[in-house]
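Internal tracking record. Fields below are filled automatically when a chain is submitted to the structure queue. Please do not edit lines marked as system-generated. If the sequence contains nonstandard residues, flag them in the REMARKS field before resubmitting.
Queue: standard
Priority: normal
Entity type: single polypeptide chain
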Amino acid sequence: MQTIWLGGPEWVAVLRIGLGLWWLESWRHKDKKDWFGGGGIRWAAGVAAEHRWGFVTRGFDLVVKPYPRFMAYLVAYAELALGLGLVVGFLTPIALVAGLLLNLIYLVLMIHDWGEQGQNLMMALISVAAFFAVGWQVWSLDNALGLF
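SYSTEM-GENERATED OUTPUT FOLLOWS
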């Protein structure tokens, strides 16, 4: 592979770090008081309740609705953990797969609102590319520690 300035593994690391910064921004911009007070889960419950696919409504009611406070913390701290893990390259393949799953869940929840899809589609694409390009080869704790 011929590139300008950096080699292929370094460019993939740039994508990985950028994706991590994107997850950190998802964490940073949340109104934590409202989010942890149930605002985010109430919003998602409203979307799920009117979803065109019944399995989404049933799944939300079964998994999320009974535990709104726990789910709010789980989502927010997952974003923080994903961001930190991807930026420093720690447990990178796990972070890439977990982030892809979060993006896919959100894509399914918001399938009717294409205005919401761009960010999640790009994050999912970067996750897949970084995973299959072994995005933890350089500039990562995984590489420094000999993991994966």
